[in-house]
Amino acid sequence: MIILSVKDVRTRKAHRCYGCGLRWAPGTPMTAVVCSDGRRLNTCHWCAACVDVGQDWLNSFDEYEGLPGDIRNADVPRWLAVARRHGLIPALCAG
Ligand SMILES: [Zn+2]
After folding, report:
1. Can you give the pLDDT at residue 30?
2. Cα-Cα-Cα-Cα dihedral of 58, 60, 61, 62, to 10°?
3. How far does residue 36's CA lie from ligand 1's centre (Å)?
4. What is the Å distance from ligand 1's center to 63 Cα?
5. How many secondary structure helices (H) and strands (E) does the chain include?
6. Do residues 45 and 11 make contact, with C-beta atoms less than 8 angstroms apart?
7. Which residue from 7, 16, 21, 84 could staple onto 69, CB 3.0 to 4.6 Å apart?
8. 12 CA → ligand 1 middle, Å
9. What is the pLDDT of residues 15-73, one digit of tens each?
10. Nearest to 47 by CA among 86, 1, 74, 4
11. What are the backbone angles phi and psi of residue 11, rounded to the nearest 5°?
12. What's the CA-to-centroid distance between 39 and ligand 1, angstroms?
């Protein structure tokens, strides 16, 4: 997918993060990423930990080939450490 815009938001409803695949509660600061698969626009949300771990892709405004959960699954201990640093407690997310 090709990344078209990246914007920080505070969510009004629960969103599943594209990077980690976890569902985060309403009111969580997330990053809304608008992308295109070549046919239609899509908005996906990223939690702060995944933005941090995946920032090379997001900042490139280029193609991202990952699937939901890839950012966390690539290195779970590193992702957990970053999530804790951002004050995110994965055990308390909506699942
Ligand atoms: Zn995430």
Report:
1. 95
2. -110
3. 20
4. 18
5. 4, 5
6. yes
7. 21
8. 17
9. 999 999 999 999 999 999 898 888 999 899 999 999 999 876 666 656 677 788 988 99
10. 86
11. -70, 145
12. 25
